[in-house]
Write a structure and sequence with these properties.
Keywords: Signal
Number of strands: 59
Pfam families: Cu_amine_oxidN1, WG_beta_rep
Strand order of the largest sheet: 9-10-3-2-1-12-11
Distance between the termini: 62 Å
InterPro entries: Cu_amine_oxidase-like_N, Mao_N_sf, WG_beta_rep
Structural class: alpha+beta
Radius of gyration: 35 Å
Protein name: Copper amine oxidase-like N-terminal domain-containing protein
Length: 789
């Protein structure tokens, strides 16, 4: 670390002058002078090793506590601590730069106020000390009370005699020390966060979500990852293709360039510590990170400096100041200088944890200490890290737990098992997972497809593609709204409706009338746990559950909720035998959160073009029966009609250049003509018009690509178009299928995405009802192969 260094002679002169000045000052004041005092610094050096140095200094004791002179933070004695102090005698202003925290502190002689600034010197906060920063006027040296060190996060103590100890060893910042008690949960394909009581704090509006780490959580929005804080505000806007959790104040992020995913590191302000130049990146630990560069691992510090270039074929993160590395299929451990402190002699190895690391010799695993000596002999078929004094090990085909003496604390009786956290570990019996306690007894019986580990007060489990939490009694933890009711989410996405993550198979889709969205009442209300009744004579619908009674009347904007009159924004209506109600009414009465994703699924029956194609088959027959002269005349008439259509669109574009819908209408018209006449030049013009529409609304490119795919006989092209659209927006593909009946293509594409199993199964089941026998067979086969259905 760079520090200001004073020559030895200058340092000695300062010390002697200070000792004399404080002695003189003490004779006139009540302060006590310790002429042969000592200041001890405890710190971690560049290599991550803990050090302690002691320096002689005259100290002044004021009100029972020692004060430290400023030159103890200026001289060569301060070269390994994170503070650099400067003093302007003319103004009495003191500035201290805290390298570890990238912060500045502004103080003034005779004042108890401390201004905290960030590294751009923008004020962040202000601290108040119990005593002023003192100046010993003979010699004019400012002195820092020990409280100042404590206020900025360092331990500072006085032994009451002549010794001051200041601990500069890095400690977790507030975000690291106190875990953010918010936990991700999912409703269908949407993620939010709840607190440890189950109350929803951040609404489920993300496509993906990771647990909070160091005050921030990675979330996915519109296909890209960013980071939010505990309020749900974006601290780092979505811009990455992948994003890992923060550790040691940095996070590994990935970005795809020319189809290749590369990794780098960002700090909590989103600034890059290292550009996207790595092929893989492990998290920071102990101040360093391991990353793959080319065909080997390197280790970097937080400044992005590559430190250890040796050609390691494998590596792990630093843990307890050591990192595992491998060359020529042999594993050992290095320190932060890159020195092999444990020779490369093992067949495989794990990270150090609680002073021990798993290592493999002659096909068996045991545990070594930091000298490389086996503490627990290599006798296991596999071994994991120690956590809470126990490590999961494999004996034969079963897993159990050993303690640090090598004694089996929990017998190997499980088909698989995970690490302990807060006294519990996930374990598998047969093909089901649950949780055990430190006695090896089932705390939560094995009943789930997988157990992801304990998270705060909750136990994370999975069934199929559904992830959720259970409590200590094994009860499902249901997210709750601010009023303590079960949280419900109704997601209206074009022609699709999802209630609490479950797609509804609707006979009548939602409709929009005069700007109000109306949805089928029965399907939604029953999904929310209400019992419905219908009185055809009175035209009334009733819906009831504990504490709630609703009465609606067809074509009447007045409704009754628990006996009180409520005015609706639109009257309930009947559409093809189904009762439709305003969706906003649900959120206001049932307590469901309603969210929308507006889609414009383009109908293949061309917009307003029905007249153009009406009777076209008859026109073709007449054309074929006609003579040459008549044919020529008929062709000219059709061309004149098409020219009028083209002129009309061009005039419209000239007046409304940003009407994306009109561009798409015209693109589809040209596409139909291209299909009809087999004209490539017309098809190319259609694609060009669609590209103009996509410049205005990007999703139009996906709409047109799906339109083109539906008219293609190339199965590979069809699959590629649907897969690309599904990856960009699964609901867009679902809506396209609901409009056009292309359920197998949609289901196949959705089945290739993580977390979209329910939507894929929905589409494939719809495909089973297809009139196309080949499509039914393909849907049945995919349901069996992928989902065992």
């Amino acid at each position: 670390m760079k520090r200001m260094v004073a020559a030895g002679a200058v340092w000695l002169a300062c010390l002697l002058a200070f000792a004399a000045s404080v002695a003189a000052a003490a004779s006139a004041d009540t302060e006590r002078v310790i002429e042969k005092g000592q200041v001890t610094y405890q710190y971690v050096d560049y290599w991550g090793e803990e050090q302690a140095t002691t320096h002689s200094s005259a100290l002044v004791v004021k009100n029972g506590t020692a004060t430290v002179p400023i030159f103890m933070l200026q001289s060569g004695n301060a070269k390994d601590i994170p503070l650099e102090a400067t003093y302007d005698r003319a103004t009495g202003r003191i500035t201290v730069f805290d390298i570890a925290r990238s912060a500045y502190y502004d103080l003034k002689v005779g004042s108890s106020k401390v201004t905290v600034l960030n590294k751009e010197k923008i004020k962040q906060s202000e601290l108040t000390l119990a005593s002023d920063i003192t100046v010993h006027l003979v010699g004019d040296y400012p002195c820092f009370p020990l409280e100042w060190f404590q206020k900025i996060g360092y331990s500072a103590t006085f032994d009451g005699e002549r010794g001051v100890t200041i601990d500069f060893r890095p400690k977790a910042d507030a975000a690291e020390a106190e875990e953010t008690k918010l936990y991700p949960f999912s409703i269908g394909s949407r993620y939010g966060y709840m607190d440890d009581t189950g109350k929803v704090v951040i609404e489920p509006e993300y496509e993906g979500a990771e647990p909070f780490s160091e005050g921030l959580a990675a979330v996915q929005s519109d296909g890209l990852w960013g980071y939010i804080d505990a309020s749900g505000s974006f601290a780092i806007k979505p811009q990455f293709d992948t994003a890992a959790r923060f550790s040691n104040g940095a996070a590994a992020v990935g970005r795809r360039t020319d189809g290749e995913l590369k990794f780098g590191y960002i700090d909590k302000q989103g600034k890059m510590a290292k550009g996207f130049e790595y092929d893989w990146a492990l998290p920071f630990r102990d101040g360093y990170a391991a990353a793959v560069w080319g065909n080997h691992f390197v280790f970097i510090d937080k400044n992005g400096t590559n430190l250890i270039y040796k050609f390691h074929e494998d590596a792990g993160p630093f843990s307890e100041n050591l990192a595992k590395v491998a060359r020529e299929d042999r594993y050992g451990y290095i320190n932060k200088r890159g020195e092999e402190v444990v020779p490369l002699q093992f067949e495989d190895a794990g990270d150090f944890s609680e002073g021990l690391a798993a290592a493999k010799t002659n096909g068996k695993w045991g545990y070594i200490d930091k000298t490389g000596s086996y503490v627990i002999p290599a006798r296991f078929d596999h071994a994991g890290p120690f956590a809470e004094g126990l490590a999961v090990v494999k004996e034969g085909d079963r897993y159990g737990y050993t303690d640090k003496t090598g004694k089996m604390a929990i017998a190997a009786a499980f088909t698989s098992a995970g690490d302990f956290k807060d006294g519990y570990a996930p374990a598998e019996s047969g093909d089901k997972w649950g949780y055990i306690d430190t006695d090896g007894k089932w705390a939560i019986r094995p009943a789930y497809d997988f157990a992801d580990g304990k998270t705060g007060p909750f136990f994370a489990v999975r069934e199929g593609s559904r992830s959720f939490y259970v409590d200590k009694q094994g009860n499902v933890v249901r997210p709750r709204d601010s009023q303590g009711r079960d949280y419900s989410l109704v997601f209206v996405a074009g022609k699709a409706i999802e209630v609490n993550g479950k797609l509804l198979d609707l006979e009548v889709p939602p409709v929009v009338r005069n700007g109000t969205t109306l949805v089928p009442a029965r399907a939604i209300l029953e999904s929310l746990g209400l019992e419905l009744g219908w009185d055809p004579a009175a035209g009334t619908v009733t819906a009831t559950r504990a504490g709630l009674s609703i009465k609606l009347t067809i074509d009447d904007t007045n409704a009754l909720v628990n006996g009180s009159s409520v005015t609706l924004e639109a009257a309930p209506a009947i559409e093809n035998g189904s009762t439709l109600v305003p969706v906003r009414f649900l959120s206001e009465t049932v307590g469901a959160k309603v969210d929308y994703a507006p889609y414009r699924p383009f109908d293949p029956v061309l917009f307003g073009m029905e007249e153009l194609w009406a009777g076209f088959d008859e026109w073709v027959d007449a054309f074929n029966r006609s003579g040459a002269d008549e044919r020529e005349q008929m062709a000219l008439e059709l061309q004149d009609e098409l020219n009028e259509v083209e002129a009309g669109y061009k005039a419209h574009f000239a007046e409304y250049p940003n009407d994306a819908g009109a561009y798409m209408e015209y693109a589809f018209l040209l596409g139909e003509l291209a299909q009809l006449f087999g004209a490539d030049e017309i098809w190319n013009e259609a694609k060009a018009i669609a590209a103009q529409a996509a410049e205005i609304v990007p999703e139009n490119r996906l709409y047109f690509n799906l339109y083109a795919a539906d008219r293609s006989s190339d199965e590979q092209s069809v699959s590629a178009a649907y897969s690309a659209a599904a990856k960009a927006d699964p609901y867009l593909v679902l809506n396209h299928a609901l409009v056009n009946g292309t359920f197998f293509d949609a289901g196949k594409a959705l089945s290739g995405l993580n977390g979209m199993d329910d939507m894929a199964i929905f589409c494939l089941n719809k495909a089973l009802a297809s009139e196309d026998e080949e499509e039914r067979k393909r849907a049945k086969a995919l349901l069996g192969e992928k989902y065992g259905l």
